[in-house]
Specification:
mainly alpha; Arc Repressor Mutant, subunit A; three-stranded antiparallel β-sheet; 6 helices
């Protein structure tokens, strides 16, 4: 399958933010295609990976890292807990805080998603060689550090 080219007369505004937004929308569309039938969304997969990579993370810290409202993370974590993908424990020093960790089932879901995720990334980055991929990552990291 080849990467679709935009129509020759299609001109985007000369604004990098607009380009990033269009890429994001197309990536979400491709993600939906690749993960169809799994129940995974970009948000759920991101949260599961963040919890895996930050064991016993506090819900509030997770919300801060993902730039979302704590109440939104709390609702998502509640659903993931009900589905058996994560577990929550109350902090011993601050009873208002909860630590979240991935369960075996959550790890299994991530393990099963790995091949799809690799296929997804390969599909959206197919037009870039290894050097371009590294440059893209470095540029995105720089932008993230610049706009705190």
């Amino acid at each position: 399958m080849t990467v679709a080219e935009p129509a020759a007369d299609w001109v985007l505004p000369d604004n990098i933010g607009f380009h990033i937004r269009i890429v994001q929308l197309r990536m979400f569309r491709e993600f939906k295609r690749v993960f169809h039938g799994t129940g995974l969304t970009p948000a759920i997969l991101t949260v599961l990976v963040m919890i895996r990579d930050n064991p016993r993370i506090r819900q509030r810290t997770l919300a801060e890292m993902l730039l979302v409202q704590p109440s939104n993370i709390a609702a998502m974590i509640s659903g993931l807990d009900q589905d058996g993908l994560v577990s929550r424990t109350v902090d011993k020093t601050d009873r208002r805080a909860c630590h979240v960790r991935l369960t075996r089932r959550g790890q299994q879901v991530l393990d099963e998603a790995r091949d799809r995720m690799e296929a997804f990334e390969e599909r959206v980055l197919a037009g870039l060689d290894d050097a371009q991929r590294k440059t893209l990552r470095a540029c995105l990291d720089t932008i993230l550090c610049t706009i705190d």
